[in-house]
């Protein structure tokens, strides 16, 4: 299954009981709202597919995994309702990943910023390359990583999340991400695909009922995310209207 238009591409392929979702966008694999919605719908669909036991989530290209929200759409936000609607897209995606009945393996081949870090944090197991640095740059543009914070803090802890957030200008290395639990393992780029495939196939050979119960245990204590993430989207949707943010976004696009 595949879909591609001006808002990016999304393709799902199958090998045995492993489904691989690949997303892409010309602007450094960023996410306009429509692409967020398509990815969310695809994860929900695979969650109900009894022929699938494991999902691999990956992106196009070799240098950037995901650069977060679409700057063009952020600049187009005219009121709080539109802002909340846009950022709720990330809320819905993270909740879909959390509620998915399948374990999700993240394949991270390059840098990730903002919402891209949140997506990585919502994966159950992540294999990355040594080039896969991460950054939470939201404060630098006048907002904050409010929607993705629960996912990031759950993975790396509140203190490490704080370090990333306050040092909004600073890249954290892949080794830092590995040491703090965002990544599960690092592999050179030429070995990454084979390592991801081997791990996914091995995982898919286990009892699917045991995998489902393990998924439930992994995400225990996150039941309130359904409402919390939407409330966070409202905060961000309001802040994105500020003159500070509008000016910062224009500067970032230059």
Describe the overall structure.
The protein is an alpha/beta fold and 254 residues long. The protein is built from eleven helices and ten strands. The chain has helices spanning 33-47, 71-76, 80-99, 115-122, 149-156, 158-166, 174-179, 189-204, 208-218, 225-239, 243-253; strands at residues 2-5, 8-15, 18-24, 54-59, 64-66, 103-108, 111-113, 125-128, 134-135, 185-186. The strands form two sheets. The protein has a seven-stranded mixed β-sheet, with helices on both faces. A three-stranded parallel β-sheet has the order 5-7-9. The longest helix has 20 residues, at 80-99. The relative contact order is 0.15. The model has no long low-confidence stretch (mean pLDDT 94).
Question: What can be said about this structure in brief?
Answer:
This protein has 254 residues and is α/β, with parallel strands linked by helices.
Defining traits:
three-stranded parallel sheet, alpha/beta, single chain, 254 residues, 49% helix, seven-stranded mixed sheet, 11 helices
How do the strands of the widest beta sheet line up side by side?
1-2-3-4-6-8-10
Report how far the terminal alpha carbons are from each other. Answer: 36 Å
Q: Give unreliable regions as ranges.
A: none
Helical residue percent band: 40-55%
How much of the sequence lies in strands comes to 15-25%
Oligomeric category? single chain
Structural class computed from helices and strand pairing: alpha/beta
The number of helices is 11
Order of helices and strands: EEEHEEHHEEHEEHHHEHHHH
Shape type: globular
In round numbers, the mean pLDDT is 94
Biggest sheet architecture? 7 strands, mixed
Count of β-strands: 10
Radius of gyration: 17 Å
């Amino acid at each position: 299954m595949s879909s591609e238009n001006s808002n990016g591409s999304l393709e799902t392929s199958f090998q045995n009981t492993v489904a691989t979702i690949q997303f892409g966008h010309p602007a450094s694999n960023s996410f306009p709202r429509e692409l967020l919605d398509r990815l969310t719908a695809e994860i929900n669909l695979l969650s109900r597919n009894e022929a699938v036991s494991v999902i691999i989530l990956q992106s196009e290209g070799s240098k950037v995994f995901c650069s977060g929200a679409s700057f063009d759409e952020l600049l187009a936000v005219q009121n709080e309702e539109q802002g909340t609607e846009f950022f709720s897209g990330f809320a819905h995606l993270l909740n879909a990943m959390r509620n998915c009945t399948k374990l999700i393996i993240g394949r991270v081949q390059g840098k990730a910023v903002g919402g891209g870090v949140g997506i990585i944090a919502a994966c159950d197991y992540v294999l990355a390359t040594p080039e896969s640095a991460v950054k939470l740059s939201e404060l630098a543009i006048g907002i904050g990583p409010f929607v993705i914070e629960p996912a990031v803090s759950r993975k790396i802890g509140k203190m490490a999340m704080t370090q990333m957030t306050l040092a909004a200008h600073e890249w954290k290395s892949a080794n830092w991400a590995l040491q703090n639990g965002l990544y599960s393992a690092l592999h050179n780029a030429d070995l990454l695909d084979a390592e991801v495939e081997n791990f996914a196939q091995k995982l898919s050979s286990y009892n699917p009922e045991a995998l489902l119960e393990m998924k439930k245990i992994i995400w225990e204590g996150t039941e309130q995310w359904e409402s919390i993430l939407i409330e966070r989207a409202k905060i961000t949707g309001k802040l994105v209207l500020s003159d500070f943010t509008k000016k910062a976004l224009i500067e970032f696009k230059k």
